[in-house]
């Protein structure tokens, strides 16, 4: 078994792995026989949204979607050192239990960096992880170490993380995250002015773009392009994509420097 001091296997320079790039129901969507859901292009197979920062001091996961276990197996990621949460929606949280094995290798609970409303949901849904009952055997419940965050920058695995407060429809405030000159902003339909300022200077911006038609809680493609035009990153990637976008056809219509993300895509982490 790998020692916790062995941080990342064969990492030559920091990178970001797109573990999942699909909307909440995934693509293909159950029961749908549309052109995209039946496509043989692997870039049209989108699991639920998550990225992984492969940093010099460890693997920093963003969100624990229901597909997390298969995503980590697919990308041959042997260990997660800490998790950041954007928000508490099912498609971003409900794979959490599958982190259960990693505390054995880490020698401590899994650090979960999240806002209070996400913590409240975790404590409700995974109440058995916080029970006073003596465990029957090691690993019988997840060991979770919650670290409360707000809107101030913080450090995790020796890396500075800047939260980007975002609106996600009328009822949800979520966080994007900036690490160096890379920013990840999924599940949003509004970037407040102060948050736009926090994005300025990024070289790589990942942003929500659900579909072509407007949506009450997600950016559509044109709205995402408007944000990209304001931030002016060197390159931008669209994520949280539904089955309305065929990868090849949608990519052909995007401006220069804007790309559709896809599951398994790896990009360098700009310093
Ligand atoms: Zn989502
Ligand atoms: Zn479909
Ligand atoms: Zn959401």
Automatic annotation (TrEMBL):
Descriptive protein name: Phosphoribosyl 1,2-cyclic phosphate phosphodiesterase
Q: Write down the Pfam families for this protein, in alphabetical order.
A: Lactamase_B_2 (PF12706)
Domain of life of the native organism: Bacteria
SUPFAM superfamilies attached here? Answer: Metallo-hydrolase/oxidoreductase (SSF56281)
Which InterPro entries does this UniProt record tie to the protein?
Answer: Metallo-B-lactamas, RibonucZ/Hydroxyglut_hydro
**Residue span, Metallo-beta-lactamase domain:** 47-240
Query: Transmembrane ranges?
Result: none
Which source organism? Neorhodopirellula lusitana
């Amino acid at each position: 078994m790998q020692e916790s001091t062995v941080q990342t296997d064969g990492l030559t320079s920091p990178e970001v792995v797109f573990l999942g790039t699909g909307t909440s129901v995934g693509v293909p969507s159950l029961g749908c026989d549309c052109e995209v859901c039946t496509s043989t292009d692997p870039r049209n197979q989108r699991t639920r949204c998550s990225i992984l920062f492969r940093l010099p001091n460890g693997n920093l996961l963003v969100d624990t979607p229901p597909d997390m276990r298969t995503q980590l197996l697919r990308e041959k990621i042997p260990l997660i050192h800490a998790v950041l949460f954007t928000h508490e929606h099912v498609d971003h949280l409900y794979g959490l239990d599958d982190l259960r094995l990693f505390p054995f290798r880490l020698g401590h609970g899994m650090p979960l960096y999240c806002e209070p409303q996400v913590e409240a949901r975790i404590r409700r849904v995974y109440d058995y992880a916080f029970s006073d009952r003596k465990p029957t055997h090691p690993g019988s419940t997840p060991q979770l170490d919650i670290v409360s965050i707000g809107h101030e920058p913080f450090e995790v695995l020796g890396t500075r993380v800047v939260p980007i407060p975002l609106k996600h429809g009328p009822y949800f405030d979520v966080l994007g995250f900036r690490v160096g000159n890379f920013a990840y902003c999924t599940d949003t339909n509004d970037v407040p002015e102060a948050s736009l300022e926090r994005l300025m200077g990024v070289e790589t911006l990942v942003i929500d773009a659900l579909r072509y038609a407007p949506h009450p809680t997600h950016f559509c493609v044109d709205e995402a392009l408007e944000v990209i035009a304001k931030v002016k990153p060197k390159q931008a990637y669209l994520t949280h994509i539904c089955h309305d976008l065929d990868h090849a056809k949608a990519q052909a219509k995007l401006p220069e420097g804007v790309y559709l993300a896809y599951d398994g895509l790896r990009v360098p982490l700009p310093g």
